[in-house]
Amino acid sequence: MRRTNFLLIAAVSLVLLILFANPFAATTPDEKHLLSFRPTVGDVFVYEKIMDGVNTMERMGQFFETTNTSTFVFQLETETIDSLVSFIMTVDTIGYSFEGPQGTQAMDFGDIKGKRSRVTITPQGEGREVVPIDSLPTPKMGGQSMEGDAKGWLSVPLFKVPEKPIKIGDSWTEAKLDTNTHTDTTRQSTRTSIKDSKSKYTVLGIETKMGLSCLHIQVETEYSSQSQGKMRDTEVSSEGDGETKSHVWFAYREGILVEYNTEIFYEGTTAYSGQMNMTSPNTNESKSSLKLVKWVPAKK
């Protein structure tokens, strides 16, 4: 009897020792996690973003295919943490190229390596602004200057985490309606686009990435889009439907986005009227990945 009690007490003591020595060891499928970006001031993160896409377009019975590739490697150093999270972004490498019927062209970003910008996001990961600290070069394509500086290429959409606690097996849907207007003075074009989407979120489990315990979240989205605009003297309108599938790994203890992969398929029609009148069906398939390749914790 005494031996039984001794073994019971020893077992309970061992469990308590493990729990107090590692308070995260008690993570269970039923445990809820409220996700947020919460780095420590001085933390440095290095990310790599890669995107590949194929676009097919039909014009007057002929099919044209273009492929594009972009690579962006950058460092984020945590500057401040308050109601918003502020990082100093430093560019390492950035590149964009596409291949079409007229050959291959690459974007020239000039002397952009080492240029810094201040990036501000909400604790949920929603981007607020990108403000250049250093003077940014004007990108060129085929010797022709593009609209504005490289600021637009430095925007990195992070995953917007749910605002409610979630656990393994949770699933929910969200609807969203976005309206955007874009003006390009160089090409004398304006465009207003509307995107209506519905997304299904599913928490698949807990997996280890970069040595960090991450919640694995799948997001499946169906959307419809339409746009109306003008390019010089030609009216341009488009409409279509698409779907995306994303997989996200988020380190719930540290508040760090570790990996974010997305596949997109879109099928639509673009109509031109004015100097030229035609209708052009088109499809687009692309894959993108954003990966944490290095994390240097702040010195204590």
Number of helices: 1
Radius of gyration over C-alpha positions, nearest whole angstrom: 24 Å
Number of domains: 1
Instruction: Characterize the overall form.
Output: globular
Element order, helices and strands? HEEEEEEEEEEEEEE
* Structure summary, number of beta strands: 14
- What's the architecture, going by CATH? Roll
- Beta content: over 45%
The biggest beta sheet reads: 14 strands, antiparallel
Could you say which structural class the secondary elements and strand pairing correspond to? mainly beta
Question: What is the helical fraction, as a range of percent?
Answer: under 10%
Please identify the top-level CATH class: Mainly Beta
Low-confidence stretches: 1-26
Task: Describe the protein in words.
- This protein is mainly beta.
- It has one domain: Lipovitellin-phosvitin complex, beta-sheet shell regions (Roll), CATH 2.30.230.
- It is built from 1 helix and 14 strands, in the order αββββββββββββββ.
- Strands 1, 2, 3, 4, 5, 6, 7, 8, 9, 10, 11, 12, 13 and 14 form a 14-stranded antiparallel sheet that branches.
- The N terminus is likely disordered.
Annotate the secondary structure layout.
Elements lengths: L1 H20 L22 E16 L2 E20 L3 E16 L2 E6 L7 E6 L5 E6 L7 E2 L2 E2 L25 E14 L4 E21 L2 E20 L2 E18 L4 E18 L4 E19 L4
Antiparallel strand pairs: 1-2, 1-14, 2-3, 3-4, 3-5, 4-7, 5-6, 7-8, 9-10, 10-11, 11-12, 12-13, 13-14
Top keywords for this entry?
single chain; 300 residues; mainly beta; Lipovitellin-phosvitin complex, beta-sheet shell regions; 14-stranded antiparallel beta sheet; globular; disordered N terminus
